[in-house]
Amino acid sequence: MNTIPMREFGSTLTDRADGKKAFREILRRTTFPASLDFSGVVSLGSSFGDEVILAVAERQGNSITVLHANKVIQNAIRRSVEDSEVTVSFPD
Known about the structure:
The chain is an alpha/beta fold. The protein has helices spanning 16-29, 46-58, 71-81; strands spanning 2-5, 12-13, 34-37, 43-44, 63-67, 87-89. Helix 3 (71-81) links the parallel strand 5 and strand 6. 26% of the residues are buried.
């Protein structure tokens, strides 16, 4: 499984437009399935999460693995997927 280092998109990921831009970059250079690594990221807004988390999960059977996410980020991800069919795994 490939790992996408989310820190490349910033340490505070909040804006919907930035999420769309990040997802376009992820599509350009990633082979799925992939996990998202939030090492070095301190916060995630639901708008950014909607654009990235849901879109990545959709490309891999509505499932996603999230690595090194602090509690703030985990909660934002849970909010982003709560009304969807997406399953999120936080293995660490």
